[in-house]
Amino acid sequence: KGPDPDLVAIAERMATVKHKILILSGKGGVGKSTFSAQLSFALASLDFQVGLLDIDICGPSIPKMLGLEGQDIHQSNLGWSPIYVESNLGVMSVGFMLPNPDEAVIWRGPRKNGLIKQFLKDVHWGELDFLVVDAPPGTSDEHISIVQFLQATGIDGAIIVTTPQQVSLIDVRKEVSFCKKVGVEVLGVVENMSGLSQPLTDFKVFDSSAGGAAEMCQEMGVPFLGKVPLDPQLCKAAEEGRSCFEGQSCRVSAPVLRGMIEKL
Ligand code: ADP
Fold it and tell me: Which residues does the annotation say bind ATP (predicted)?
């Protein structure tokens, strides 16, 4: 039996991609897509050639977070063309394929895996410095698939996004353990919505003083990248699908995010 032709096709596509980074989270709603989007904007602003692949098939938020809602994917003889935000930032998401964004995507594992395979095989990224992959929360079929499909070409590592709460951290431990089991390096953990960018009296829900991700990282032997505060300006940038690094847009969170990216 010869090599799997799909894996061969994926390896060919990935031959022009220098670095592949997975963005993971234990739970939904912790800011994984926001981080993926802003990491991509930041890398692009540093003049890297960047691709952002959204494999959160049941809840794709990337089109909105990059201001690309309602765009359609085009096909050429080279494959599916990503949608470009800028000449050096291309995006691919199942969100571009859904006729109605309000419609639920109810797919079983094999169909999701099929689409992930197709994304890796058929998207014509061209030369990329970074492929940022926004994964769904948790460790499910999609995660096993992406790791398996990219095994031959290698994944540089994963960044795990969490909030400071123990409830979120419990699931991050599972992500770290997943990465260890499948041999993906944890590049670091980001503690998001950690404290507030603006003072608000008697607001303790996002209190970041206790333990949190830093302590867990130390315990699990993985790098801690830092804390991004709960920042209304970052939330607004995500809603409006724009970079938080431009102008004065996110005074508090943008320098923090930039510092994290420099550590990678
Ligand atoms: P996930 O991808 O983990 O499900 P999202 O990235 O979709 O989470 O974020 C959920 C919501 O929280 C979004 O509306 C986003 O704009 C907002 N958000 C994320 N991080 C921050 C932050 N640091 N400050 C304020 N709002 C944030």
Answer: 26-33
Ligand 1 contact, 24 CB (< 6 A): no
Confirm or reject CATH 3.40.50.300 for domain 5-263, answering yes or no.
Answer: yes
Ligand 1 atom closest to residue 30's alpha carbon, by position in its atom list: 3
| 235 alpha carbon – ligand 1 mean position (Å) | 6
Q: Most confidently modeled of 18-22, 162-166, 234-238, 246-250? A: 18-22
Q: Hey, what amino acid is at 82?
A: P
Question: Which ipTM did the prediction report?
Answer: 0.98
How far separated are the first and last CA of the chain, in Å rounded?
Answer: 40
Tell me the three state secondary structure of residue 190.
strand
62 in ligand 1 pocket by Cβ < 6 Å? no
pLDDT tens-digit profile of 142-167? Answer: 999 999 999 888 899 999 999 988 88
Instruction: Please check whether residue 143 is in contact with residue 115, taking contact to mean a CB–CB distance below 8 angstroms.
Output: no
Label residues 34-43 b or e (16+ Cβ within 10 Å = b): bbbbbbbbbb
Does ligand 1 lie within 6 Å of residue 168's CB atom? no
Average per-residue pLDDT in the chain?
Answer: 90
Q: What is the pLDDT of residue 145?
A: 92
Instruction: Provide the whole-model pTM.
Output: 0.88
In whole angstroms, what is the distance from residue 130 CA to residue 124 CA?
A: 14
User: Binding-site residues for ATP, please?
Assistant: 26-33
